[in-house]
Amino acid sequence: MALVTEKTETTKAEETNKADSSKAEKNRRILVIDDNEVIHDDFKAILGCEEEGLVDVEEEEEAIFGTPSDSLEKEVYEIDSAFQGQEGLEKVRQALKDGHPYAMAFVDVRMPPGWDGIETIKHIWEEYPALQVVICTAYSDYSWHDMLSQLGTTDKLLILKKPFDNMEVRQITCSLTEKWELVNSLERRVALRTEELQEVVNKLDEANSDLKDFVYIASHDLREPLRKISSFGELLEESLKGKLSDDELENLRFMTDGANRMTKMIEALLIYAKVSKNKPVFEIVDLNETVKKVEQLEVATLLEDTGGSIGVSKAMPKVWTDPVQLSQLLQNMIANGIKYQDKKNKPRIVITADKIDNDKVKISVKDNGIGIKKEYYGDVFKMFRRLHSCSEYEGTGIGLAVCKKIVDRLNGEIGVDSKVGQGSTFWVTLEAAREE
Question: How far is it, in rounded angstroms, from Cα 43 to Cα 49?
C-alpha cells in the first residue's frame, strides 16, 4: 500500500511540473539596437506578420505540414527599441532589474556617434551573458575573425546581412528565442537540483557531526564502567586467591581481559573521533624533530619492551601539516610495524622522506615484520579489519584506519608495499613546506 501511495505522489509531482511548464509564459522579448528608426519599423513589421509577402510562407507551411495556417500557433514577440549602444545597455539593465530579461537582441554594427555594435555587445554580455545576439550589417566593418577576437568564440552570436530576408529574420528569431528558453530552463533545473543536493549534503553533514559527537561522548562515558569492571575483577582475583577453582579463575580472567580489550578499543575510537572532529591546523613542521619526539615519548615503552629500534637514513624535509595529527600518524605507523613481527625478530623501523613533484613529500615507514599479501592492501586501512586473530597479535583494528583518516584530512595519500615474510613499507604523501 505504501508503494502505491509513493508512486501516486510521484505521479502527482510529475503532473504538477508538466502543468507548471505548460502554463509558464515563454520569453519572446526582443531588443533592437539600431540608430535608424526605419530598421525598427522593419523588424516590427516582419515579426508582427504585417507584410503581405508573408502569406506565401503560411501557404507553404500548410502545403508541407497539411495543417491549415489558422490552426498553427503564432509566436507573439514583444519588441523594444534602443537607438544607441548606451541606451541599449540601460534597457538591458532595467529589464534584468524588473525580472523580465530579453531573450535576444538585433544589434547594428554602425551607430555613430556612440558605441559601435561590437562594443555594445561586449558591455551587455559583461552584465547579461545569456543574451542571444544577432549582428546586423551591410558593410564589412569587422571580419568574423575580428569579431571572435573581441567577443570570444561563442554560440550566442549570429550575423545577419542587410537587406534582410523576411523568412531568415523569422527563422533566426524563432530559433534564438527558443534556444534562450531551453538554456534558461536547463539552468533553472540545474540550480534547483543543486539547491536540493546542497540541502541533502547539509543534512548529511549535520547527521555526521551528531554521530561524531555521539561516538565521542558515548566512548568517553563507557570508559569509567569498564575501568571499574577491570579493577574489581583484579581485586576479586587477588582477594579470592586460592579459593577459586581453575574454571572459576579462568572465567574471571576472561571478564577482566574482555574489559581491558574493550577499554583499548574505546580509547582507539576516541582517537578516531578526535581526528574526525578536530580541524587540522597547518604550519611548517620539522619531520626530523617530530620523529625524534615520537621515538622518545609516544613509542618509547613499546621499543623498550620489544627491543626494537628506529633509524632515519638521512635528513628529512619540512612539511606543511598539522603537527599533532602528524605525530599521531607516525606513532600509529611505527607501532604497527613493531607489533606485527615474528616473535624471534627484534623490530627494526627505518623512516625516510623525500620531496616529489616539487610540492609533495613522501614519508615511508619500513619495517622487518611479517608482511601483507597484496590482496589485503586495501583492507588494512578499514575500520575493524583484522588480518590476524587477537590471540596471534593484540590490537583493535583501528590504528591504520586512524592513519587513513588523518591523511585524508591533511589532503594527502596513504598506501603500502609489502612482501610476506619480508616486511612492509607504509607510505604517505603530504604537502611540502613552502619556501620561506
Answer: 10
